[in-house]
């Protein structure tokens, strides 16, 4: 379980690291904390299952995250999430 938790933390960090870069392609997207959280959560949910349920150790995860394909998948997931949040922003709704 610890390995899985470490994995999702690393994945979440990788998505957070890529968020600002992805937002640069969407100058009209909202950048408030609520929207950033929504975008990150949506992107994480849409990433391939092999990231979520993997029993691989963190060393393998690090290698995986450094692969270009993985970074592209993170970017694609972020772009989809940004478009989704942009079309239906939650920041106007009460929590
Ligand atoms: Zn917002």
From TrEMBL:
One Pfam family this chain carries?
ComFB
What is the protein's name according to its record? Late competence development ComFB family protein
To which species is this protein native? Carboxydichorda subterranea
């Amino acid at each position: 379980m610890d390995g899985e938790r470490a994995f999702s933390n690393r994945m979440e960090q990788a998505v957070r690291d890529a968020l600002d870069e992805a937002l640069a392609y969407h100058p009209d997207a909202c950048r408030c904390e609520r929207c950033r959280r929504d975008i990150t959560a949506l992107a994480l949910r849409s990433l391939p299952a092999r990231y979520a349920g993997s029993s691989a150790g963190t060393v393998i995860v690090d290698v995986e995250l450094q692969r270009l394909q993985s970074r592209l998948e993170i970017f694609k997931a972020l772009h989809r999430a940004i478009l989704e949040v942009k079309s239906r922003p939650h920041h106007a709704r009460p929590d």
